[in-house]
Amino acid sequence: MMNSSNGLSQRLFWLLLGGMLLLRLVIAAMLPMMETTEPRYAEMSRLMLEKQDWITPWYDAQTPFWGKPPLSFWAQKIAIDLLGVNDLAPRLPSWLFGLLLLVVVAWLARVRQGKPAILPTMLLFASMALPFVSMGAVMTDVYLALGVGLSLAAFASLLNTPSALPGWLFFVGIGVSMLAKGPVGVVLTGIPIFMWTVTGGGWRRLWRLLPWFRGSVLSAMIALPWYGLAELKTPGFLNYFLLGEHILRFVEPGWAGDLYGDAHERPKGTIWLFWMLGALPWSLVFVWRYGRDAWRIRRFPWPADGQGRFLFFWALAPMLFFTLAGNILPAYVLPGLPAAAVLMHGYLRPSGKQLASGALVAPLVIALAVVVLMARPAQWTSERANVQAYARAAGSASLLAYLEKVPYSASYYSHGAVEQVSLSGLDDWLARGQGERYLVVHDRHLPLLRERTDIRAVALSRSKTMVLFKITGAAGDR
CB neighbours (10 Å) of residue 426? Predict the structure, then answer.
């Protein structure tokens, strides 16, 4: 096949890439945050802003969050402070960090294949389903992928030409990883380096490539101050985060020690399916071509050079690490996709037309799904519509409450100005104060509300599972 830098102009490739990034930004500004991950992390960032706390992310107003380091929360806190409480603010940092990750992909492509490969590889990576979704989602994985990618791209560069700057950038990436998601970033960085070393790279060469002592000091200066301050402020953090989040979560399905109820039990080996889905549509093309070639020559094609082997192990690192894990998410494969994109471009060598058409698949399918979802607000697993309906209808003295449980999106969109009312405390809430009251009730509790003859409830809005009612005629209205 023709090299992908031929056939179509560089200008068209730039237009495709720019249009793709702009489309992702528009989606980030329009789409409501669906339960639970996005609004949970957005609300935690809003609480950090409200408390003016740069050390501890807060799970709720009283509970410190020990599940993740603060890099993503810092960035989201700053964005909410600048842009306000809306859908774009907490998502914008992921989009910006995603641009930095694209720069890392461009660097890696140039190191591996030269300058002509930069733009096609960036386009291939950005058009994969998982990178497209992650750029502009309120999650920590883009930040981790940037740290791991910076370290490993620097190492790949050193395999070509030993130099001081990539050596320092390697340890900057380690520090970023530690602030993004913790020691898992060091593990994902170490796996491909270890595999490259034992398959021919050599321990002596590894020792010479990097400024191990001074670089480790630099990584420690970037990351360790926060770890120390976090433990001093909320004792117990290090034990829970290092032991619980990084060992027990992955070896114990349904880990009972989870403080936040967000463990994700999956069958072991599911991470390989997540890779296939995350790298769509290019994963299908690559697996088909790779399998066909392996069948023809009766062996798996293997990179002949050391740098190629290193990239191969980098691309596989998340799957090698998480294959036996009990609790995983689809986004865990993201740190390996920069290397996968470089290898795919070099192996498939798509023509310009093939690359352009393939690059449109995932973004257009996702955009179409967003259009369908936006047209059906009653199917949103988000409380944006209910909170906005309350804001339009409510007076200054009105009260908004959720029966039994307040969703994260309700807390975020209401700036935390929402109450949780238990079933046993409903009478007291109804009797408290004067004026209009607004109550959001889950579908499973609607029969209980209808049985109350002393309450006049007018439905104003609904989400997929919850209905907003304006309450009148209850005790306390005399």
Answer: 21
DSSP states of 364-387: HHHHHHHHHHHT-GGG-SSSHHHH
Q: Which two tokens stand for residue 445?
A: 């509790």
Exposed, middle or buried by CB within 10 Å (0-12, 13-18, 19+), for 207? exposed
- Residue 340 CB: number of other CB atoms within 10 A? 25
211 phi-psi bin (left φ>0, alpha ψ -120 to 50, beta other): beta
- Taking a C-beta distance cutoff of 8 angstroms, is the pair 338, 101 a contact? yes
Report how far residue 56's alpha carbon sits from residue 228's, in angstroms, rounded to the nearest whole number.
12
Q: 67-70 — which CB contacts under 8 Å span 24+ positions?
A: 67/241, 67/245, 67/259, 67/260, 67/262, 68/140, 68/181, 68/182, 69/178, 69/179, 69/180, 69/181, 69/182, 69/223, 69/226, 69/227, 70/179, 70/226
Average pLDDT over residues 232-246: 84
Under 8 Å between Cβ of 273 and 331: no
Residue 434 structure tokens: 């004067």
Q: Report the percent of the chain where pLDDT is more than 90.
A: 69
Q: From CA 211, how far away is CA 323, in angstroms rounded? A: 32
Cβ-defined contacts of 372-378 (< 8 Å, 24+): 373/31, 374/30, 374/31, 377/463, 378/462, 378/463, 378/464
139's torsion region: left (phi>0), alpha (psi -120 to 50) or beta?
Answer: beta
Across the beta sheet with 456-462, what order do the strands follow? Answer: 419-421, 399-403, 437-442, 466-472, 456-462
Task: Please state whether the predicted TM-score (pTM) of the whole model is above 0.85.
Answer: yes
Say yes or no to pLDDT of 478 above 60.
Answer: no
Question: What are residue 471's DSSP bridge partners?
Answer: 437, 457
Residue 477 in this model has a pLDDT that exceeds 60: no
- Take residue 365 and report the two structure tokens written for it: 């399918």
